[in-house]
Structures are given as structure tokens and as C-alpha cells.
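Incident log, structure service

09:12 report received: a user says their structure output differs between two submissions of the same chain.
09:20 pulled the input from the user's history:
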Amino acid sequence: MQELQVLEQGTVTTPRGFTAGAVHVGVRSDWEKLDVGILASDVPCAAAAASTRNRVPGASLVISRKHLASGRAQAVVANAGCANAATGKRGLDDAVRLAQLAGQKLGIDAHLVVVASTGVIGTYLPMDRMAPGIGKISLSSDGGLDFAKAIMTTDTRPKHVAVRSRDWSIGGVVKGVGMIHPNMATMLCFMTTDAAVSQPFLQSALAAAVEDSFNMIDVDSDTSPDDIAVVMANGLAQGDEIDSSDPQARLFSAALAQVCVHLAKAMVADAEGATKVIEARVEGAASREDARSAARAVISSLGVKTAVYGRDPNWGRILSAIGNSGARVEEELVKLFVATPDGGELQLFDGVPVEVDPALAKSCLVPADIRFRAHLGLGAGAATAWGSDLTENYVRLNSEYTT
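09:34 re-ran on a clean worker, output below:
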């Protein structure tokens, strides 16, 4: 299989035929921050999406689901500062209007426009400012970074990446640092590729990538009503169409998964108030689903999060989280490890407590990246999940003002 090149500075406009741009129109109060952006392809694209399982979806998401039902899209119009959720018929009408405005600007059918909104729930979009503002957006092949900035809320930095193969590339941007929990998060993610990809295969590849990335992260156990991940494939790399039987199918799936994992980990690293990224790797589970459940339980545990923040090597909280995950567990078979600063591992539990140097154990929780590994001794199931620690700053950010 070909090697994939990771482009840390890549964005959604790295693949051929995609342009983007953004402006500030006043959805957000800070006039220095971009708050409305457009991402567009030169030609219609095969499109696939995954979205929140929250049963009160935002109005923009409701409209986007209708537009994406065709499996085709050509553009995205997105805003930060207002979620357009819990806004009733007016919110739905506003989302339709946003698609129409973007479509008119680009000269395309409004049904080819995905609409996405993020921000405060229960407020209306300021359409009197957004309508003229959309017309002022200047799109370019260098506009991917501005588009990434336009979807940020409490994010401290834009999150973007691209992966390139010999023949095509995939670019992506994401936002989200709070209300993050498996089954999607408070996130907007947009990905593009110039590969020609059949829509059914694109959907299946995205679903698999999301399961092992955005559905394996946690900050605060909340899931928002606006989450969506979209990938658009325009085929402008001029290669043969990739489907599930194509020799490049495995490579494309790996590249898409790599983009999703990179963006998911970037969200956790920028989580509200966080100081550390926690990786939980579970091996030896009775099934893959058991491994996923156990890994997610560890990174979602408030006890584990606070222990990591306090540099307390309290492996009992990890064992308890695994035992409460629903996965099959036999205590006497469980082994727990933590990564050491020198790249090795320190065993903490082997069916019974393991005597360790307390100072060494504590030193394992000093780095910004903390890695735990559990082996359940029951089978071949394995999975990895990522989370953040929980700090006083998270409480402050979410109690002092509306986000």
C-alpha cells in the first residue's frame, strides 16, 4: 500500500477544485473574529455525512440532512456564535434562506448547499446581517484556514490537516472543544477530496472512520444538537472512481481515517480548560465492541479525568470504569499499564495490585500526553479512545458566561 503524506498545514482547500472564504458579520460579538464561512467545489460532489444522535437536532442540521439525502453536495455555508437550535419554524426558514443565499452567490442549486451552525442554543440567526455578509465572502484556494476560523466558538486555535497520496488528497477542518462525548460531539467537521469516489463507498468509509475517531473522544460527557461531519468528493484528480472493489479502496479508507483521528485528537488537545490528553488503549477484550465500550468508559470517567489532572496514579479508577462499562471483565485476568516518560510502560495491576515506586508512577502523569493500556485477557478485541483531563478552568469557562 502506498505511503500517505500528512500535511499539518493542509486544509479543506488542499484538494484540487475547492475554494473557501469567511467574513465577520456580527453573529459573534467580537468584531475581530470571523463568524460566517463558505466552502465550495468547482463541480458537484459525491457527499457523505454522519450527524448527532441527539433527538433535538438544530434547524440547520435538519435542513442539511434533507439536502444530503441525495448523496450530492457542492458547498457548505457555516456560522459560529449561534447554534440555530430550539428555534422552531423560524430557525428552519433561516437555514433554508442561508442555503439559498450561498447558492445564489455560487450560482448553484440551494439543495447542493450544506448548512451548519454552532454556538449558543436558543437564539436566532441575525439574518439581517448574515444576508448581506454572505455576499461579501471572497473565496480562494487559500481560504481554508479562514473557513476553519469561522466555525470556532470557544476553540483557542483552528484545527485542520490534509493527507496526500500519489494521486489524490483529503483535507479537513473541525471545531469543538466542549460538549464532547462519543456518538459525535459538539463539532462541525468538513472534509474534501479530489478523488473520484462512489457515494455508497464514501458513506461507508466515513461511517467507519467516524466510529474510530469522533465517536471515541470525550471531554465532558455532553453531546450537542448540531454535530455533523461531511465529506465531499469532486473527482478532479481525474482518476478512476474508487468503490469498495477498487484496489485503492483500502488506501482511501486509511487516509480518511487518518484525517478523522488527527482532527479528533486535535479537538481533545484544545478541550475547554484541559491541560492533558488521555489515551486509553484496551486490548484482549472478548469483542471489538467490548474494547470500545471499555476504552470510552475510561476516558469519560470524571474520576480518571480529575486523577490525571491532579497527577494521582489512581489505577483503581481505571479498573472501576472498565468494570462499569458493560464489557465482559474477569478481574483476575486484567492487566493495567501507564506509559512512562521515557517511552516505556509501568505495570500498575496484574489481577492484583503491583508494587510500584510512587514517585515513578506520579511522574507518568506529568507529560501533556498520558497513555493508559489495559489488557483484559479474554480475546482479540482492541480499541483506542481519547479524552481530556478535567480542571477548574473547565468549570470557570462553563459557569461564568454563556457558550
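09:41 both user submissions now match this output. Likely a transient worker issue. Closing.
09:42 reviewer note: The mean pLDDT is 94. The chain has eleven helices and 15 strands.
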